[in-house]
Every structure is written in C-alpha cells, then in structure tokens.
Amino acid sequence: MISSATFLCPLCHSSKTEEFSHSENRHYHLCQICDVVFVPQKYLVSKIEEKSKYDNHQNSPDNEGYCTFLDKLLLPLEEYLNRGDRGLDFGSGPGPTLSIMMEKRGYKMDIYDIFYHDSPEVFDKEYNFITSTEVIEHLRHPMKEIERLWGCLKEGGVLGLMTAFRVGDFERWYYKRDLTHIRFFTPSTFKWLAKKLGATLIIPESGVVILKKDVL
Q1: Pick from 142, 62, 57, 155: nearest CA to 100
Q2: Which pairs from 64-69 meet CB under 8 Å and 24+ separation?
Q3: Around Cβ 57, how many Cβ atoms within 10 Å?
Q4: How far apart are CA 189 and CA 163, in angstroms?
Q5: Can you tell me the distance from the alpha carbon of 56 to that of 34, in angstroms, rounded to the nearest whole number?
Q6: Quick check: 75 pLDDT over 80?
Q7: What's the predicted TM-score (pTM) here?
C-alpha cells in the first residue's frame, strides 16, 4: 500500500517529499530538495531497542578488518591535518576504536556517544577535525547534529563522515534491513549539504565524505 501522507524532510526540513519505497514493514520517503531518503517517525524503533542493537557491536582496535575499514576515511582525512591536532569522534560506540587509532598517530582525541560516552562538555570545545563513522544514517535529527558539530569545528577544519551511499536497487539493498538505519544519502545529498554549510566537499570514494570548513 502506498502512503499519500507528506512528511517533512529530517535533513533540509522541506515538505517536497514523496513516497519512495515500502519494505521491511515501513515506508521510505524521498526529499526532492536534498535527495535524502528517510523513514518517517512512526516507524522508528525505541531507544531501548536501538541501544540493544549497538550493544552487539564487536568493534575494537584489535579488529584488523574494522581498522582497515576506518582507514578509508582516516587516510584521506589526514591529508588535511597536522600532528597534534585535536579531534572529536562523534558516535564512538561501545568500543571506541577510531579515537585510539588517531591517538597512536599523534592526534589528541575526545569521544562522544549518546549511549556510551554522553559527555556534552565536548561541544563547548573547538576541534581541528571531527569524525562520525556509520552514525549519520541513525540520526533522528541529522541537520541539528551536523550543525552542532560544524559549530565546534575551527576554520580550516574538516568533518569526516562515513555511510553507505544509497544504491539504485533500493528494494534489495541490505543496508536498509537494519531497522536502526533511518536516513539514506547520496553524493547529491552531500553536495546540497556542502552548499548549505558553505563547505568544500571531498568524496575520496563511495561512502566516504569530507567537508572542509573554508576560512572566511
């Protein structure tokens, strides 16, 4: 059954949205302005269910495959950094890994995670770089969180994101089967976001996004 309801886009807040797909017993809507596909609020799992899903994550600095995965972002990100720079890993999860990798490389790191490291004082600081890997697709209010992170970033700093880019065969895409994944992005979405933020956009490879805060 196709829903005729119109929902505001959680990223750009436009009402120019339309039904995009229906599977996993939930509807997906497409924003015609920023090209994000999103799940309306009524289909979102509870915070308890969400945390129980994350509790099962087995990520750690000893997981070589996971560290290699993170390096898809970290290696191109380091081109914009200097040793000793301070960074924030937003959404560090139950087993912080990225922050430890960067500390070993000579950077100073803070971490934040609403479930595991809820330390809001990090948002009172300024950072040379901020990372958020496999997080943005979970956010109920993505623009609010991005703007908060952007406000913590020094001029010339970089925000590094990782999330799987939406594929053409959305109906069969494995990524949307995780019910905690509720926002799905394309390079066009990040082009819109870069323009909104006044940022330089770099996409080193699919699913890896760097937004550079240009010096005014």
Answers
A1: 62
A2: 66/97, 67/97, 67/101
A3: 12
A4: 12
A5: 32
A6: yes
A7: 0.94
The secondary structure of the chain, three-state, reads CCCCCCCCCCCCCCCCEEEEEEECCEEEEEECCCCCEECCHHHCCCHHHHHHHHHCCCCCCCCHHHHHHHHHHHHHHHHHCCCCCEEEEECCCCCCCHHHHHHHCCCEEEEEECCCECCHHHHHCCEEEEEEECCHHHCCCHHHHHHHHHHCEEEEEEEEEECCECCCCHHHCHHHHCCCCCEEECHHHHHHHHHHHCEEEEEEECCEEEEEECCC
Chain segment 99-122, per-residue pLDDT in tens: 999 999 999 999 999 999 999 999
Among 160, 96, 90, smallest CA distance to 125 is for 90
Q: pLDDT per residue over 169-197, tens digit each?
A: 999 999 999 999 999 999 999 999 999 99
**Token output for 46:** 């509870």
Token pair of 205 as six digits: 């490879």
Residue 59 tokens read as 């990520």
Give the position of tokens 């039904």: 19
Q: Which domains does the chain have, with CATH numbers?
A: 45-213 (3.40.50.150)
Task: List the one residue out of 77, 33, 12, 11 whose CA is nearest residue 211.
Answer: 77
